[in-house]
Each structure stands twice: as C-alpha cells, then as structure tokens.
Design brief:
Chain lengths: 391, 295
C-alpha cells in the first residue's frame, strides 16, 4: 500500500492519539489489578462481518471462566477476562493483541475466531512470549509455519484435513460409495483444502471422483452446475462449505432431482441450513462436526449454557468453552501465571475432558488430538451416526 | 440425463436466472435513460427492498401481497430521498462526480444496513409454496415462472408509461434536454424524482421475489446481482426497457451454459467478458440505435 506524505503524517498523528488513549486506558487497568487475579486476554470479532463467530466463542469462554471462578478459581486466584474487539479485521487483530499484552498485561490470549486473524496476531504474541489458544481456527497454517511449529500458538479444535479424511472414509466405508462429485467454494481456503483432502483420501480408498466443480460465496443460483452434477450421477456429493450457500445448494439440488447423499463439514453446523433448505430437502445429508448435542458427555455443558444465555449454544460457543477449560487446566498445572510455564503446561495437556470431548495436545503440531462426530440430518433432527478418533 | 434434455434444462435454468437480472436491470436502465447516471447503488436499493419485505412479513405479520406493496412504496421513497440528498446537488457537476457519489451511496447502504440488521443472513419465511413441475425429467420451478411473468408484465407497463403517458413524455423530454424541457414548463426535478421512485420500486419487487425464491437475504446480497444487471442493461442497450429484459435473459442463459458445459469457475468471467465485448463491438447494445432518442 502506498501513502502520500500528507496521508502518512495524518496517519501517524492518528496512531499517536490512539496510543495515548491506550496508555490512559492502561493506567485505569493497572489500578484495578491485584495479585489474586489472573488476566486472560480475549481477542475476538465482536463487530464486523464474522461477529457472530467471535461473539459466540466469547460467550462459551465466559461460561467456562464463570464455572471455574464459582468453583473457587485456580490455586486461590480468580480468572478475569479482558476482552478487545478486532472488528473482524486482521490489522485490528494485531492492534487488539498489542493492547491486551502491553496495556492490560494479560498473561495469555484466547482468540480470535477465524484463521486469518489468528495468523495476523501470532507475531505479536510470539515477540512478547504470550501463549495463544485459538478456539475455532481450523486451518493447518495457524500453528505451523514452514514446517516449524510456532512455539506460542495453540488451538483447541481439530484441523481441516481431519474432517476431509473422516468424510472420505465415511463415504466409502459406511455409505459404500464408489463415485463422488466435489463441489467447493472457490473463495474459501477452508473449502478448497477440504475438497483436496477428500479427493486424495477417497481415491486412496478405491473411489473415483467424477467431477470437481466450484462456486463463489454469496452466489444465489447453483442450478446450472447442479444440472451437470446430476448428469454425473455420483454415489455422493461432497460440499464442504458454509451454511448459507449449503442451504441453497441442498434446496436446489433436491429440486432438480439429485437424490444421492450430500456430505459436508462443520460449516454445515448451523440451524439456518434447515431454515434455508427445508426439512425434506435436508434428509439424506451427513456432515462432520465437533460434537453432537445427543452425546451424554456434552449434556452438562449444554444445560449450563442454556441456563446462562437462554438459548442453545452453537458450535463456536462450544469451542470457546473448550478453550477456556483447556486454559484453566494448563494454568492450574503451571502453578503460576508465568507465561512460559503456562505455555509449557498447554503443550503437555493430556486426556483432558472438556465440553465436547477429550483433548490431548500434540507437542509437534500444537493441534489437539480430538474426536470428530458425523451427524445425519433426518426429518428436522440430527442423529449421530459415527464418532471417529484420528489415527 | 441425455444431452438434449440437459441443454433444455440449462436453458430453463438460464432463463429463470436471467429474469432476475432483467428485473433489476429494468430499474437500472430506466434511471440511466433519464439522467445518464449509472446508479451503482441500485443493487443495494434492491437489498433494502428485500429487507423491508422481510420485516413486513416477519414483524408486521403481513401476507405476501401487502408486504410487497409496503416494500415497494418505502423503497420508492428511499430512492427519491437518495436522489434528493446525493444526486440532486450534483446536477451540474461533471458526470464522474455523480458516478463516484453513486459508489459512495452504495457502500453507505451496505454498511448502514449491516449495522442495523446485522451481517448474519436472514432466512425468508416460506410465504409461497414452491411447486416444482416435472415434465419428462425437465424441472421447472413455479416461483421461477412467476418471476419471469412479473418481469414481462412490468416491462410492458413501464414501456406503456414511458411511451404513452404525459409523465412518460415529460421523462423523454427531460432526458433529451433537461433545460429546454424546463423552459417548456416541465418540472425536471419532479420528473427525475419520479423516475428514481419507479426505478427503486422495481428493485424492491426484485428484492422481495429473490428473497422468497432463494430463501435467504443479507446486507451484501445486492453487489453481484447489481453488477450483473448492469452488464445486462449494457448488453441490451442501456436506456432501453425491452433491451434490459432481453439482455438479462441472454446473460442468464450464457451463465448457465458456461457453468453447465464448460466450468462453473468461468461463469463470472464469461459474464464480464460479455460486457467488454459489447463495449468494444457494439457500445450501444443489441437494441441501441445511434440516434439521440432515449428510453
């Protein structure tokens, strides 16, 4: 980006003003701080275009922290969440992280929700040696750069390729599919990488991918492509995408008479899919996600969330809750609020029961080893058809 | 599915997609025809229309026809207000200034709506049964036929207004030479205002129908259809009402054939390639004549 001298001057003036604001705010924060608190920085998308992800994750995190504090805190200290809004932008995510670390003096960061913002934040966190837990960022690049694990960056959810593998296996083993069509969102790395993994794994299992098609986020009409997908007459159609487009694709596919199973991933995990597609169209579709609300071990979390917020949690809230539990466990084992000790404790997490399953941290990749579930949409409800641990 | 049937199905898909472009392009072309302004905010007016329809149905509990009317009237007023605040002060400014303002209005509408209604997509309630008609494997949706029908009816009504009513005559006069028209006793500002009202009402109709057909609306839903409708209007000959409809349908069919028989990733490239080719080969579009007559 190029700026004229005048713009640059103006910008530095603005930046200066903001910095001053930060310093003043910081002073206020310091007065309130006391030694029986441990500050956790929550850097989330509270406004902007993915605000619903950020807010839901923060709700889940808040619930986890409330529960921990209600049970007496950690080693006699209370956890305090200091939140900052990154406005759903990468540059703002860096600003928010800087503010939380230098002004508020947080010992550990949770968030942001989406991959790009976590990647943007990771440099600041690494420079300041503050560990980060990303609750929902599923892209492999979040924790690994050029084949090297980033020492301070962790995540508490599974990664994209795992879902591609799980669904490919499910298609060939459970559904006995021999042929598949892959239909991805070309404007999303999430969707493209899942399509790629699915193809590799499905072919490895002896299946054949007949056709690979693509659309763009915000498309409304999919009928032209779906008409040619229908011609291919594959055993399954794999659509790893987000709920808005998924709803429309499923609706239009069924309208055109595509009756084969349609498969997806955690982007499908939203009640809006059913609203858009309609209950009948959604029959005979399957998707992988992080947990099932029918699972006994998840009940406790579901009830607590419902009680606090008055509505059922979505998958982001569940992942935010998991991140909170993971962090609390690590701080407890670290025995202090020293950032390096917390970092090491997160790395050593083993067989920890969180809201949606059991987590063991892989020290080589900083990805948790965690189950995935496969849900089937059936007559307006969801049925858990498989629970798969990664190998 | 055999080849012949597939071609037919793609033709149906294309015409129904094209009729939505056509419906939006009608308003586009009408406004351009009168004041030579490419109103880039038109796609966003369409989005606002969809939201007003949505709230009229879900919050006020109206059924589809009254909701459509509420949306139509409110959006027409919004269009007139936008014209008054943003474009009227620039009546004698260079055309580029007005164009840039239109882009500004577009962003303003997008992000103001995002603030008020949140960026989360809303699902449109099912106010109309979706009947799929199956003729020997060829699937035609009842709502698609409705949209196509409404587009044609509106095209005929508009053409009638422009060609045969006094307001229409005044529109054509104002379009031909605003100042002389004013000397002849035509209130050009009023005529321009009416044009914006009608154009925006058309966008509202498109917005509500699309909301019903695709089942979901969001604050950025107007961007792509707005651009495509612009291509459709240019293809048909900008400023010419039947041109907008023909241009829209051709564009829809081309998109359907490209995504069906070549590759879905080339679809948008094909749409905008049409724009470039038309501008190079025949800038006046299919129906355009090299005379001075407009609308």
């Amino acid at each position: 980006m190029y700026f004229s001298k005048k713009t640059a001057k103006l910008m530095s003036l603005l930046a200066g003003t903001m910095l001053m604001g930060g310093v003043l705010a910081g002073c206020g924060g310091d007065n309130a701080a006391s030694s029986d608190e441990i500050k956790i920085g929550a850097n989330f998308e509270m406004t902007g275009n993915v605000a619903n992800y950020g807010q839901a994750t923060l709700d889940g995190l808040n619930l986890a922290v409330d529960e921990i504090n209600a049970a007496g805190g950690i080693n006699g200290k209370k956890l305090v969440i200091v939140s900052a809004d990154n406005k759903s932008e990468a540059a703002e995510a860096v600003n928010a992280a800087t503010k939380l670390i230098s002004d508020d003096g947080v010992k550990v960061l949770v968030g942001p929700a989406v991959t790009a913002n976590v990647i943007a934040e990771s440099q600041v966190a690494t420079d300041n040696k503050v560990p980060v837990i990303a609750p929902d960022a599923t892209s492999p690049d979040v924790t690994v750069e050029n084949g090297q694990v980033k020492p301070f960056i962790f995540r508490s959810c599974f990664i994209d390729p795992q879902q591609g593998t799980v669904m490919a296996k499910f298609a060939s083993e459970n559904l006995k599919a021999k042929t598949a069509v892959i239909y991805v969102d070309n404007s999303s790395d999430y969707s493209k990488s899942l399509g790629k993994v699915f193809k590799e794994e499905f072919e490895k299992a002896g299946g054949k991918v007949l056709m690979e098609e693509a659309f763009l986020a915000k498309d409304q009409d999919f009928k032209a492509t779906l008409t040619s997908i229908k011609t291919a007459n594959a055993d399954v159609v794999f659509v790893p995408a987000y709920y808005e487009e998924v709803g429309k694709i499923v609706k239009q596919a069924r309208e055109l008479g595509i009756t084969s199973p349609i498969l997806g991933t955690d982007g499908w995990d939203d009640s809006k899919v059913a609203d858009i597609a309609g209950v009948d169209a959604l029959n005979n579709t399957y998707f992988s996600t992080h947990y099932s609300d029918k699972d006994e071990s998840v009940k406790g979390f579901l009830e607590a969330f419902e009680k606090k917020y008055g509505h059922a949690p979505n998958v982001f809230a569940a992942l935010g809750y998991d991140a909170g539990k993971l962090l609390a466990d690590a701080i407890k084992r670290a025995g202090s609020d020293d950032s390096e000790k917390i970092r090491q404790a997160i790395e050593e997490t083993k067989d920890l029961q969180v809201g949606t399953g059991i987590i063991t941290m892989d020290p080589k990749t900083h990805n948790p080893i965690k189950q995935a579930v496969i849900l089937q949409n059936k007559d307006g409800g969801r049925v858990m058809v498989a629970k798969i641990m990664p190998e | 599915m055999e080849m012949g049937q597939q071609v037919l199905q793609q033709l149906v898909n294309g015409i129904s997609l094209g009729s939505i472009y056509a419906l939006i392009a009608l308003g586009y072309t009408m406004i351009y025809g009168i004041i030579k302004l490419i109103n880039f905010a038109h796609g966003d007016i369409y989005m606002v229309g969809a939201y007003i329809g949505f709230f009229a149905i879900t919050q006020a509990g109206l059924s589809i026809v009254p909701a459509l009317l509420v949306s139509l009237v409110t959006t027409a007023l919004l269009g007139m207000l936008v014209e008054k605040l943003a474009y009227k002060p620039l009546r004698h400014a260079p055309r580029l200034s007005v164009l840039i303002t239109a882009i500004g209005v577009s962003f303003f509408l997008e992000y103001a709506s995002m603030y008020f209604v949140s960026p989360t997509p809303r699902t449109f309630p099912a106010v109309m049964d979706s009947v799929a008609i199956n003729i020997g494997g060829l699937v035609i949706n009842g709502q698609q036929m409705l949209i196509l029908g409404i587009t044609f009816v509106l095209m005929v009504i508009l053409t009638y207004i422009v060609k045969f009513t006094n307001t229409g005559k005044a529109m054509r006069a104002a379009s031909f030479d605003t100042e002389t028209a004013q000397l002849m006793g035509i209130n050009s500002d009023r005529i321009i205002s009416i044009t914006f009202g009608i154009g925006s009402a058309l966008a509202a109709v498109a917005g509500v129908l699309v909301g019903i057909y695709y089942n979901s609306i969001d604050p950025l839903m107007g961007i792509m259809p707005g651009l495509k409708a612009f291509v459709a209007a240019v293809l048909g000959g900008i400023g010419i009402l039947p041109g907008a409809v023909v241009g829209g349908i051709i564009l829809g069919v081309v998109e359907a054939f490209v995504s069906g028989f070549i590759s879905s990733t080339f679809r948008d490239a094909a749409a905008f390639a049409i724009l470039i080719i038309v501008l190079l080969v025949r800038p006046t579009g299919i129906f355009g004549k090299n005379t001075k007559e407009k609308v």
